[in-house]
Specification:
With about 210 residues, the protein is an alpha+beta fold. Helices cover about 40% and strands about 15% of the residues. A 6-stranded antiparallel sheet has the order 1-2-3-4-6-5.
Length: about 210
């Protein structure tokens, strides 16, 4: 015996089931059932076409890929050192205004830096760790209106912790006083492996 499809029966179905039922009704030329399905889908706002996202530009894809690569370095080092917020807080007791840094952003990628946030550079994505008054970061950095290949990987940390470090003002000469940097020293690299090794060396000191 064929099922008598009423509005109530259709309404009791899950949305994918209603869509399949409508498709079958249209194939069998059962217009009344197709109309019931369409009406129920309209109530659920389920017939809107999905918005197709615009493909990323080359620059945005570069930023996305670099942010994920830096995050991968952070995840590896988090297995080597205890970079948890709880430990950072425990080891920073007595430091006024201490706030632990999340190593990664909420999506597990590199965080968005302030200089990119305010539009003064094209790319500023980073991971960071803080213990006490000291902050260390690993970032990918690209100035505005520069080709993608001119990007740098930068390690920013207290100058005393860096082997061969330079004043941060030399590493980021376009930074204004309002764009306060996380530490007074830095190193710049053209390849991520070298930057990751320098960041690892700094973490070994700060997380000891």
């Amino acid at each position: 015996m064929a099922i008598e499809w009423t509005e109530e029966r259709v309404a009791a179905l899950e949305t994918p089931q209603i869509k399949n039922l409508r498709e079958n009704a249209l194939k069998r030329d059962v217009a009344a059932l197709a109309e019931i399905c369409t009406a129920e889908l309209a109530k659920r706002n389920a017939d809107k076409p999905r918005r197709i996202g615009q493909p990323r530009s080359e620059a945005k894809q570069f930023e996305h890929d670099m942010a994920d690569q830096i995050a991968a370095v952070g995840k590896t080092l988090a297995e080597k050192y205890d970079l948890s917020e709880a430990t950072a807080k425990a080891k920073s007791e007595g430091v006024k205004g201490f706030k632990a840094h999340k190593l990664l952003d909420s999506k597990g990628s590199a965080k968005l830096g302030g200089m990119q946030r305010d539009g003064s550079v094209a790319v500023d994505r980073y991971i960071s760790y803080r213990r006490g008054k000291d902050i260390v970061t690993l970032s990918v950095f690209l100035l505005k209106d520069q080709p993608l290949e001119s990007h740098e990987f930068q390690v920013i940390a207290p100058l005393a912790m860096l082997d061969g470090g330079k004043p941060v003002a030399e590493i980021r000469p376009t930074a204004t006083p309002a764009q306060k940097q996380s530490a007074d020293g830095g190193l710049a690299f053209k390849d991520l492996d070298s930057a990751a090794a320098a960041f690892d060396a700094v973490l070994a000191k700060i997380a000891a």
